[in-house]
Specification:
Length: 274
């Protein structure tokens, strides 16, 4: 047994080489190349690319963070109670319907939400028909910053429910029975038992959702008109695709990476403390 262990370790290392090479070649090297390009202009080391990002896109940085944060709050504000309720009151139909957005492409979500939230779209027409909004009132939900968090939350809710349901099901039934023995209702069992015991999984789901929202491209592209603040991925596409400015596009990419890495840092810091 002891003679086979070193051989087994070597085999594990050999099995990990292809995946490691993919990470190095597919992610590590382009990241280093982008980082070098962000500090280079015409072959000279400079901060000009970052100065341009600050001058032209600082409002877009704030806008991206605000939209992602609003989408995250909306996603978990709905996802945690729903997942907790499904953990306590099992419903296969509701669970299946909540996972449907997983199979809908981002660009389809953007197009559907643009129609649903448009000034004369499905939602305003329904509100007018119910008499909740005056026919003279124009609801421009899809054109403002409110529509984007709604669309991002709908798309990411399925992934969050999937992760939280797995975490909540890992909580032993004896803890819930003890809480019920002390008179805890459904809401109390969710917030006093399920959420604290599944906190690491909730943190991981939050980081994954936030980084995905920060990198959103298709949904913002479908729902915005091209004027006003934009998500950073659209700025990156315009800077490189339309202007051919790889240096500034790389600087925008580095800023986006730092935003995502910041969220991951706080999550890993919390995990290490535990």
């Amino acid at each position: 047994m002891s003679a086979a262990r070193p051989v087994e370790q070597v085999l594990w290392w050999l099995a990990a080489i292809p995946a490691t090479m993919v990470i190095i070649v597919g992610f590590g090297l382009p990241l280093v190349q982008s980082l070098v390009a962000s500090f280079t202009r015409d072959g000279v080391l400079t901060l000009a690319n970052y100065e341009l990002v600050y001058r032209l896109y600082r409002q877009d940085v704030v806008y991206t963070v605000m939209v992602a944060a609003a989408g995250l709050v909306l996603t978990f504000g709905i996802g945690i109670p729903l997942s907790g309720y499904l953990r306590l009151r099992h419903s296969q139909t509701a669970e299946f319907l909540l996972k449907v957005p997983l199979f809908v492409p981002f660009v389809v979500v953007g197009h559907a939400m643009r129609i649903f939230l448009a000034p004369r779209g499905t939602l305003p027409s329904l509100l007018h028909a119910l008499g909740l909004v005056s026919p003279d009132t124009t609801l421009a939900i899809s054109e403002g910053w409110i529509g984007l968090p709604i669309a991002l939350a709908w798309k990411h809710l399925a992934l969050v429910v999937l992760l939280l349901m797995g975490a909540f099901r890992g909580v032993g039934e004896e803890y819930l029975e003890a809480a019920r023995g002390f008179g805890a209702g459904t809401f109390r069992q969710i917030w006093a038992v399920l959420v604290p015991m599944a906190a690491p999984s909730i943190g991981l789901a939050a980081v994954l959702s936030l980084t995905s929202m920060l990198a959103s491209f298709s949904i913002p592209l479908m729902m915005t008109k091209g004027s006003g603040p934009q998500m950073l991925m659209i700025d990156l596409y315009h800077r490189y695709g339309l202007h051919g400015d790889f240096g500034t596009a790389s600087a925008i990419g580095v800023v986006s990476y730092l935003l995502a890495a910041g969220a991951a840092y706080y999550y890993l810091k919390g995990v290490m403390r535990q």
